[in-house]
Predict the 3D structure of the following.
Amino acid sequence: MGFLGDVFSWLGDNWSGGVGGGIDHRAFEHLQISGLSILIALVIALPPAVTLGHLRRGGALAINVANIGRALPSFAILVLALQITNRIGVVPTVVALVALAIPPIFTNTYVGLREVDAEIRESAAGMGMRGTQVLARIELPMAFPLIMAGIRTSTVQVIATATLATLVGWGGLGYYIIVGLRLNDNVQVFGGALVVVVLALLVDLGLAGVQRLLVPRGLRTAEPRWAVDAAIKTEEPEAEIVVAA
Amino acid sequence: MRGSRKRFKATWLVVLASLALVVAACDDDGGGGGITVAAANFPESNILAQVYGQALEAGDVDATVEEDFGARPALLDGLESGDVDLTPEYVGALLNELEGPDTATADTQESVDLLTAALADRDLMAFEPSEAQDVDALAVTQDTAEEFGLATYSDLAPVADQLRLGAPPECAEFPACIPGLRDTYGIEFAEHVPLEAGPPIFEALNNGDIEVARVFSTDAAIAENDWVVLEDDQGLNPVQNVIPVGGSEADTSEIAEILNEVSAALTTEALTELNKRVVTDKEDPEDVAKDFLEENDLA
Amino acid sequence: MIEAANGPDSWIWWEWVGDHQDEILSRLREHISLTVLSVALGVLIAAPLAIAASRRRVLYTPLLVVGSILYTIPSLAAFVLLLPWTSRREAALIVLTSYTILVLVRNIVTGLDGVPADIKEAAQGMGYSPLRMLVRIELPIALPSIVAGIRIATVTNVGLVTVAALIGQGGLGALINDGLRRDFSTPLVVGATLSVALAVALDFGLLGVQYLAAPWQRRSR
């Protein structure tokens, strides 16, 4: 049996049960911590991003948040969170993952709202809509695909990075990768990584499905739903447009 | 129009040329001449690599020290490919890595003999082991020791179901760790909290997130926190004497003489003290290694 | 007299930073080296793929799918899995390069798609060959989008290179690792701060390149 055969029999042998639970249990833990982190990131990132995007203010801030966020090493945040909070398990993991998740959500939401065509906003105002009505009925629906793209980017990154949680007392799928790495067991490393990748792609597909259901037909884009990252097109130094799935 | 196009072309050229330059300049490759002493990526290994490297230099052998080279598999690859000539190792840990996780025993001579044979199969060799050991150990706080009356591993067996173990994730599958504790002592902990070795485990023990901590016997944190190290009364943990391991470049009588003197001078107490200076006092491995060699008239 | 005691337990122990300037600088150099090399390789690989995909649309979706999957693999696992076949430096470069492909392909294709059809027709009418049109017309017009992609890839890789320290490839991650092992915040904070500063600096540098290379873009609309 080749390497891939070994991987598949490893998957079968470890699917459930065992000390600390099987793959199914760890995958659930993995999703739990990822979902919690994304929810917290949404609560933190959406209000300021929506406000700034609606007011069309703070472009430089949005871009800097995105940049700094991308460059912050999750590993360092995890260790710092451990040292600052003096806690193990959920707390440092969530701190690190939330920091990772905020930038794409923030930038995409901000840019999505800001880029709503001025003519459309003006005609909505001309029809007698107030600022909050324009926001709720025009801007948010039009920005929705971009906001979802940000959430999907964040989610995929969070799921891939939650593997580090196993170093600070939270289980999850990183367990297999770290243990395989330390015991020089490539089958386990590969099997663990495979499960993480499949999980991330499934969740992304699920979110794409949610997006498709919620986006009005007229606003759907032709981009393949596989694309998970937000591509940025720069027009001028302080104004970036995020084009995404 | 024409001017700007020319300028455009020129700028592209500049961009491409500078990119090529950066790429060329960046492709640095370390590795000076002489013996390359490489350390695993933890403080004690860095200290020992500095001790070996500086002792060789003092004995007129050209040596360069590479700290934090990587984990054990990377070091073994380096030794076999010749990128690394010498590295500090531990008898039991290295033997188990080479010959399977259940090979090393609690008998030093037996384990060293097995290790020497295993290394010879790979065209590698070991020098004399030192008496200094850094073994895997279980530590508890004074309070826990008193509350449950703990002094040895055997004392753990009846009360383990009330205790949580903080240990690296791989402990769950490593024979001398959780499986060995279960099979040799009948110890079944209430929970295994996966934590990276070192500070994360120490903090968890002090915070009461775990009751039993997997530590290394030379960890400075043990004395600092006044923890109780439990005795491995049935000899589950293999011996972990510090031993220099090398490739063919290092296989000279001159080098052997120097390293064997270093190993003879190195004790567990000395190693613990060196660790404390680096981990607790934040001194550099290079400096504490120099002091150690000077105190022992090796440099 | 109250003196702020700056020592090993401070967030940043300035004396340590001063004593370790050489080490910090060489870690920074290693970091820049890996980042720049991997993005440069990414551009070399992504550019032809993206140009092909913008011509033959069927290629685009499979490319994005492969890119997305590469992007999802946990970096640590990817490093480790390559080690049996490559040197450590090669493993780091392959992983870091593969993470850039998705963003670069997307942005290059988006940029090329944005070239107005009438401009291309006019160029054809003037007798431009396809290659000449690509170099003279399409790439310059797509430049902002391409540079934006390179910026994202660069900034992302600055963060990812820190993980390469776990397989002994140095960089600022080695400082972070040191901080973890010794419960020592100074190298940790220095490593993380420099990583962010480097990302911002490279980002501005690339903006500058774009400014120089595309003078017609300087004026905002």
Notes: The first strand of chain A starts at residue 231 and ends at 236.
